[in-house]
Amino acid sequence: MKIGTPFTPQATKVLMLGGGELGKEVVIELQRLGVETIVCDCYENSPAMQVAHRSYVFDMLDGEKIRHYLDLEKPDIIVPEIEAIDTNALEDYKRNLVPSYKAVSLTMNREGIRERSTQLGLKTSAYRFADSREELATAVEAVGYPCVVKPIMSSSGKGQSVIHTAQDIDHAWNYSQAGGRVADCKIIVEGFVNFDYELTLLTVRHRDGISFCDPIRHLQIDGDYRYSWQPAECQASVLAQCRQVAETIVRDLTDDTDDGICYGIFGVELFVEGDQVYFSEISPRPHDTGLVTLVSQDQSEFALHAKAILGLPIPDIRTVSPAASAALVLASDSEEPFTYDISDILATGCEVRLFGKPSIIGQRRMGVVLKASQDPIHALIDATIGAQKLKQFQSDIS
């Protein structure tokens, strides 16, 4: 691809549907390469909007609005960045879609990708789907206790809970409906995997094939990422399995070259139990646990995504230093904007990325603390302390 000049008829235009913190980093990388960027989201001043050339605010589930702005802008590349999108509206534009219409339509809800992974023969937890509280009870009996309940369309752990006994079913159903991206959201009930640890394997499909980043360990709280570190220690045989699983699902989602751009980065989530690897989920875009790559790799996951979707070469991906990330999660019932004092944290050698989200209602991830070190666990400790200090300061001034 030849890259034109922004604001000229020769501009290379990328339109992003959704503009969160991950999209913000992708927009920055695209602009470094001379790309004209447009961001659409459902609220004003989203993180990616703050750095894009221009933006539009509308409901991402409104298919007519999506078509309107795609026809208005005529982007060379369309990048879905959130799950809550009317994917049917994208079918007529799929030749310009990243990574593919198949990938977007299957991964935007957990039902499609889980059934596809089963068809591909990938090992997963036991699962059932449910459309009602009564079906949930039946699914729980089939899967067994404990089990995890998730809306098929949600993000950042919203609507996710664990059922330990029958007394938990009512709460799990109500919570899933409150956290789903759409009304009357279907849910998935997953059997509990007694895993030893979770991994994210960032997998890049690019013009010359498939490349992998070093594996990333991560910890979740309430179904949402809180900490990650890279490289993760795992047996060579386990890593080989992880790569085989990731390559299988990524190739399946991108091999139809008439279905989209077919390039980009995928966040493949895996459970490891002993020497067994279970497929969990996949995101057809940068992954939140991959924020650590901002300081760990010579090319971050965002730079890799930008280069891949533009059809540029991806040289060897190097981890230049072990590193860790700790998310800054804040809670508030006010829409008043926050202020931050990061000087003490930076003085410890940590890096801070503040996302610039305009408000918090409830609980929201507002930034991340990053640390590179000779040992990933030491880096994790330092990043965690930094995030705690930043959170404590917010508590002191609120």
Shape: globular
Percentage of residues in DSSP E strands: 25-35%
Q: Mean pLDDT score, rounded?
A: 92
Oligomer: single chain
CATH superfamily of the largest domain: ATP-grasp fold, B domain
Number of helices: 11
Tell me the count of domains: 3
Q: What's the helical proportion of residues? A: 25-40%
CATH architecture label name of the largest domain: 2-Layer Sandwich
Described by strand count, sense and barrel closure, the largest sheet is: 9 strands, antiparallel
Number of strands: 17
**Which stretches are low in confidence, meaning pLDDT under 50 for 5 or more residues running?**
none
| Distance between the first and last residues' Cα | 49 Å
CATH domain class of the largest domain: Alpha Beta
Cα Rg: 20 Å
Structural class of the helix and strand makeup? alpha+beta
Order of helices and strands: EHEEHEHHEHEEHEEEEEHEEHHEHEEH
CATH topology of the largest domain: D-amino Acid Aminotransferase, Chain A, domain 1
Q: Overview of this structure, please?
A:
The protein has eleven helices and 17 strands. The protein has 398 residues and is α+β, with helices and mostly antiparallel strands. The chain has three domains: 13-97, Rossmann fold (3-Layer(aba) Sandwich), CATH 3.40.50; 126-191, Dna Ligase, domain 1 (2-Layer Sandwich), CATH 3.30.1490.20; 197-397, D-amino Acid Aminotransferase, Chain A, domain 1, CATH 3.30.470.20. The strands form three sheets. Strands 9, 10, 11, 12, 13, 14, 15, 16 and 17 form a nine-stranded antiparallel β-sheet that branches. A four-stranded parallel β-sheet has the order 3-2-1-4, with helices on both faces. β13 and β14 (276-283) form a beta hairpin. α1 crosses α9. It is globular, with a radius of gyration of 20 Å. 48% of the residues are buried. The model has no long low-confidence stretch (mean pLDDT 92).
